[in-house]
Amino acid sequence: MGQSSDTTLAMTVSLQYSFIVFFIINFSFVRNDCILSLTRDFGSPGPVFIRNGAFMEVNTAVGNITFGRSETVQVSCPGTKRKILLGNYTTSYDTLEAHCISNTTFRVDRRIVNFKEIRCNTQPYFTTQESSETCHGQNHIYHVGYKVRSTFHSLYEACHDKNLVLTHFVKHRLTPTSVFRQNGLKRPPFTEGNMFGKIRMNEVYKIDGQIMALDAILGTNMSRNYLTKKQFLSRGHLTANADYPTSALIRATFHYVNTAPQWFRGNAGDWAALEDGLRRRVQARGGKVTVYTGTHGVMTLPDKRGHMQEVYLHADANNNLDVPVPMYFYKLVYDKQQKTAAVFISINSSFYNETLINTLLFCDNICDGNSQFSWLKWRSNDGTV
């Protein structure tokens, strides 16, 4: 009798334990979040994702984007004839809501799809909007971003001089998760939009265009002293494309209003090292910062007679020079919460000797040998910082 009772008790405990395990497993399944990896779960062409009224951001320390069950994200393919694709099915909409079910499964337009299957039929269209806010005298602030339905979402803003065809600065935000981005993307072409009138910026930046511009200012064949296959004036991003997570946001940085002529070795060397270092530094500090990236002055090169001449890449119909090559590039990084800031300044030339460089310096270099800036590792000394 005692043995039977013990057996019954053991079976009861076993059944209760099984029920508890079953309950926990099923409860976990019901509450399972959607977890999206930037490296695996985003398709191409990628839509614009709006979450809680703003561009969707990475929200985990390991670079994933998570949703609670039934949470939504707005998916949009702005622009004429843009439509959302769900796998092989083309919807009749340019904007829809995606509802998290679990893991990478979402419900969109009454269809159950893997998140990677949510795409656009062609690349979404980003635009610029001129504001009434002025900067650098009577120049205006232009916002670059995407118009989703009736709302324009600004990604970054640029202070642009239409007469000189010069962007004074671009303002954007860096967060601790700015180190993460979607992988496997092809480098998109730059766009002019409607910002530059009759000037074809693609032609301005071509090597033939640079040769013509430098020879016109410095003298016949003088461009040979500066332009090579490894050294030329590149379309230097002001707001870095690597500062953004998803393909649509990355594409929006490829607007000529977000560029300035920057010598290639400096662009791919010290300047790229600064951009990468800042992302890692902001991640380590754990707070958001505002970044102003800009240009100042016009660089000079000696002409045939040895006289220093300001360098521009274009002249209008009246032979007025525009598209100046900046003398300086800078980044001002401002932490509003800590009320601290740092400025990094680079001379945009690898052609100057030490004597000339010393005449152009107006502040002390406190980066080298300073433990506060040990996170900043220069790639080369092509530019002077």
From TrEMBL:
Give GO terms for biological process.
apoptotic DNA fragmentation
A GO MF annotation of the entry reads:
single-stranded DNA endodeoxyribonuclease activity
Annotated residues for binding of Mg(2+)? N267
**ENPP1-3/EXOG-like endonuclease/phosphodiesterase domain segment(s):** 153-369
Residue intervals passing through the bilayer: 7-30
Per the UniProt record, one Pfam family is: Endonuclease_NS
Q: Which residues form the DNA/RNA non-specific endonuclease/pyrophosphatase/phosphodiesterase domain?
A: 152-369
Question: Coiled coil where?
Answer: none
Per UniProt, which keywords does this protein have?
Answer: Endonuclease, Hydrolase, Membrane, Metal-binding, Nuclease, Transmembrane, Transmembrane helix
Give an example GO cellular component term for this record. Answer: nucleus
Determine if Secreted is one of this entry's keywords. Answer: no
- Active site at H237 (proton acceptor)
Q: Which InterPro entries match?
A: DNA/RNA_non-sp_Endonuclease_sf, Endo_G_ENPP1-like_dom, ENPP1-3/EXOG-like_nuc-like, His-Me_finger_sf, Non-specific_endonuclease
Q: Which family does it belong to?
A: Belongs to the DNA/RNA non-specific endonuclease family.
- What name does UniProt use for this protein? DNA/RNA non-specific endonuclease
